[in-house]
């Protein structure tokens, strides 16, 4: 299992607000290129985001499914991208000092061709992507939180 973490200078609720908005998924998940649909009950267990993976025009249409959720604390997903496979992704939010959040992101391949790769090789492939995903998540959460505090939230 590969883990990356990052401290984001907003409270856990502000980070979870981004995670709970499935339409923002392609904005922070590296590799997700287009959101086609988000089920209305996202992020309830079993709900899905229907998305494309990869660059146009060779993108793959697939989905990500919520496998567990604790609002404000954690979100577990199965991210699919066939024929590449599927990965279990976990995001845990831990209060960190005054108004900040430590976000831990784990990932491991659970199905498909990538599962046969040794853990060290999987980590070499996944870690840089997930580090960038957390940087994007930080930017979205920080910007959304600042807009809400200023009284100018976007719809």
Tell me what the structure shows.
By secondary structure, the chain is of the alpha+beta class. The chain contains 3 helices and 7 strands. Strands 1-7-6-5-4-3-2 form a 7-stranded antiparallel sheet. β4 and β5 form a beta hairpin. α1 crosses α3. The protein is globular, with a radius of gyration of 15 Å. It starts with a strand and ends in a 5-residue tail after the last helix. The model has no long low-confidence stretch (mean pLDDT 91).
Write the layout of secondary structure elements.
Elements: E1 2-8, H1 12-19, H2 25-28, E2 32-38, E3 48-53, E4 60-70, E5 74-80, E6 86-95, E7 101-111, H3 119-150
Antiparallel strand pairs: 1-7, 2-3, 3-4, 4-5, 5-6, 6-7
Helix pairs in contact: 1-3
State the gist of this model.
The protein has 155 residues and is of the alpha+beta class. It has helices at residues 12-19, 25-28, 119-150; strands at residues 2-8, 32-38, 48-53, 60-70, 74-80, 86-95, 101-111. Helix 1 (12-19) crosses helix 3.
* Low-pLDDT residue intervals, each spanning 5 or more residues: none
Cα distance spanning the termini: 37 Å
Oligomer: single chain
Q: Number of helical runs? A: 3
* Protein structure class: alpha+beta
Arrangement of strands in the largest sheet: 1-7-6-5-4-3-2
Largest sheet, in brief, is: 7 strands, antiparallel
Strand content: 35-45%
Total number of strands:
7
- What's the pLDDT, averaged over the residues? 91
N to C succession of SSEs? EHHEEEEEEH
The global form is globular
Helix content class: 25-40%
- Rounded radius of gyration (Å): 15 Å
């Amino acid at each position: 299992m590969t883990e990356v973490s990052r401290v984001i200078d907003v409270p856990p609720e502000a980070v979870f607000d981004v995670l709970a908005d499935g339409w923002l998924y392609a904005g922070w998940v590296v590799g997700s290129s287009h959101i086609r649909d988000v089920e209305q009950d996202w992020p309830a267990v079993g709900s899905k985001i229907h998305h494309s993976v990869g660059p146009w025009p060779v993108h793959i249409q697939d989905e990500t499914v919520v496998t567990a959720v604790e609002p404000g604390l954690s979100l577990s997903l199965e991210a699919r991208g066939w024929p590449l496979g599927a990965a279990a992704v976990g995001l845990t939010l831990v209060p960190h000092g005054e108004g900040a959040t430590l976000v831990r992101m784990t990932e491991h391949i659970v199905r498909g061709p990538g599962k046969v790769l040794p853990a060290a090789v999987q980590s070499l492939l996944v870690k840089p992507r997930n580090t960038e995903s957390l940087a994007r998540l930080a930017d979205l959460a920080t910007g959304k939180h600042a807009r809400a505090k200023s009284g100018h939230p976007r719809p």
